[in-house]
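Consider a protein example.
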Amino acid sequence: MDILVCVKRVPDTAENEIEIKGDGTDIERDDLVYSVNEWDNYATEEAIQIRDDKGGTVTVVTVGDEEAEEVLRRQMAMGADNGILLSDDAFEDTDGRGIASILKAEVEKGKYDLILTGAQADDGAAQVGGMLAAMLDLPYAALVNKIEVIDDKKIKVGREIEGGNQELNEIELPCVLSIQTGINEPRYVGIRGIRKVASVEIPTHGTGDLGLDAGSVGASAAKVKRVDYFTPEMGAGAEMLEGSMDEMVEKLIDMLKAKGGLK
């Protein structure tokens, strides 16, 4: 089974204190530590496990500048077979639809049985996987936390749905899935693995290689434009109840009545 995993280089929130620029146009990106998007890391691990069990290849792809190559090498050190960097000045400031269009063009250059994305990326918009599936006219499932390969034409997927319930679906291949965290435990990437892939050539594809019109992506084609970044004002803090259990219950009931929650 040949699998394509879409990954993204993002600021590592565990290593950075995110601050907003004074003009509200973006976050301060100088000196940020970057890593692979958490959800995408689970997607790569799942692809590797499927390949190891069923055979085939795992290719990781990202849209970004030349620095985004580092996340491709990390995923290759993790066990992915190939990496592809989609990079062009024309891609700058593209929106989710533009990213999906770029990925679609790359998908159509190959032949993949399964395409995986993280459940969330692009500032938490969680939109690229669904858009990519729609553009490719392929079956799609989001929030996937279980994959079982039935044969070379079908898979069974589990989805996390409202109320903590689980939903199982049978989906025909090829398809697109957005992977939820917790589907597996991503393996540790050691220095030895990173060194092993340090000199592996990673092809870079731009608009010309992908057959894209530069005007169809990027800022000029974006239907969604960021107009502001800001930190919401903090509301009033929580009120901590003290006393015995009976006293706290009585206070809580009085508060609910005062606020109209109980009559």
